Amino acid sequence: MTDPRTGGPGSAAHPAPAPAPGATADLATVAAAVERTNELLTRVLAEVATTPSTHAIFADAGYVYAAVGRLVAGTEDRRAFDLDAEGLIEAFIDKARTIFPDSRLLRVYWYDGARRRIHTTEQQRIAELPDVKVRLGNLNANNQQKGVDSLIRTDLESLARHRAISDAALIGGDEDLVSAVEAAQGYGARVHLWGIESVGGRNQAEALLWEVDSQRTFDLDFCKPFVTRRTAYDGAGTAFAPGAPAHQAAAPSRDDVRFVGAQVAAQWLGSRGRDSLAELLPGHPYLPGSVDQELLVEAEALLGLSLRGHADLRRALRDGFWDHLRTQY
C-alpha cells in the first residue's frame, strides 16, 4: 500500500481515478453474458441428464446362421435346417431389454448376402418386422458374403458419430469387424460383442474379443427353439419332421390366429389384472420373453397345431393379443 505521506497514487491528496462510464457498461455486459452462458449450460446439462440412452443391435446373419446351425443342427449349410429368424431376433431384442434396462431400442440391423442384392423371400419377411432394417451385401459364386463388414462399419460409425446410440450389441465373429468397433468407440459408443456358443474352439476372432467393451455368449438352450433340422423330404421336395405326415392339414388363417391371440389376452388379463397390463404397454409391440412363450403355448393348445414354423401366423397371434389389451386400457 502506498504511504499517504508521500502523496503517491491512492493517497488522500491524489485519490484513484473513478472508472469511466463506458468501462462500467462494458463490465456489466460481460457479467450478463457470463450469466447467460451459465444458464444455457445448466439447461443443456439438465437436458442431457434426462435424455434416455439408446441402443441398437447389429447382427451378421452369415455368422448367426453358421454358428447356430453348427451348434443345434451340426451343420453350417443353410439348406439343411430352418432358422426361425423372426423368433431369434425377438429373443435378441428381449435380451437387450434386460441388459440395457434404462435404454430404448433404435432398431435391429440384419446384415445378409443376396445375389445382386435382391431380397429373398425370407429376407423380405425379416425386413417387414417392426424395428428391423435388412442390409444386403452380395453373394459370390461360392455363396460367400461380400461387403457385409463394410456395411456394418458404416452404420456403426455413423450412428456413433451422430450420438444416435450409446450402446451397440454386435453379433458377429469376423476380425474385419475390429475397425468398426474402433470407429464406434472413437465417438464414445460402447460396443458389446454377442456370440453363439461354439462346438469346438472359437467362432469369433481373438482380435475382436480384445477390442469390445463386454462379451456375451448364447448357449444351446437359448438357440435350440429357433432351429428345425430338415431330415426328410416329400416327393415335391418339401421338408417335414421325422414321423410327421408329409401332407398336414392346412394352416389356419391369420384372422383365426388373431382371434385366438385375443382369447389368450383375455385369459391373461383376467388372471394377472390391470396392473400387469400397465407394465406391458410401454414395451409395445414387443412382449417379454416369458409372456410371449406363454402366449405361444396357450395358442398352440387352442389351435391344436404348432406355430413354430409359421412366422407370419405368430405375428398375427401377437397382433390379436395386443389388440385386446389395448382396448382394455
CATH-assigned homologous superfamily of the largest domain: 5'-nuclease
CA radius of gyration: 30 Å
Number of strands: 11
Task: Summarize the helix and strand pattern as letters.
Answer: HEHEHEHEEHEHEHEHEEEHHHH
CATH class of the largest domain: Alpha Beta
Question: What would the average pLDDT be, to the nearest integer?
Answer: 79
> Level of helix content?
40-55%
The assigned structural class equals alpha/beta
Largest sheet: 7 strands, mixed
Strand fraction:
15-25%
Our count of helices gives 12
Query: What is the terminal separation in angstroms?
Result: 78 Å
CATH architectural label of the largest domain: 3-Layer(aba) Sandwich
* Oligomeric state as shown: single chain
Short account of what is shown:
It holds the Pfam family NYN. The chain has helices at 21-50, 61-73, 85-99, 121-127, 148-161, 178-186, 206-211, 220-223, 254-272, 274-280, 289-303, 311-328; strands spanning 53-60, 81-83, 103-114, 132-139, 145-146, 167-171, 190-196, 214-218, 227-229, 232-233, 239-240. It has 329 residues and is α/β, with parallel strands linked by helices.
Structural write-up:
With 329 residues, the chain is an alpha/beta fold. Mean pLDDT is 79; it is low at 233-249. The longest helix has 30 residues, at 21-50. It has helices at residues 21-50, 61-73, 85-99, 121-127, 148-161, 178-186, 206-211, 220-223, 254-272, 274-280, 289-303, 311-328; strands spanning 53-60, 81-83, 103-114, 132-139, 145-146, 167-171, 190-196, 214-218, 227-229, 232-233, 239-240. The protein is globular, with a radius of gyration of 30 Å. The protein is built from twelve helices and eleven strands. It has two domains: 54-240, 5'-nuclease (Rossmann fold, 3-Layer(aba) Sandwich); 254-328, no CATH class. Residues 56-200 form the NYN domain. It holds the Pfam family NYN.
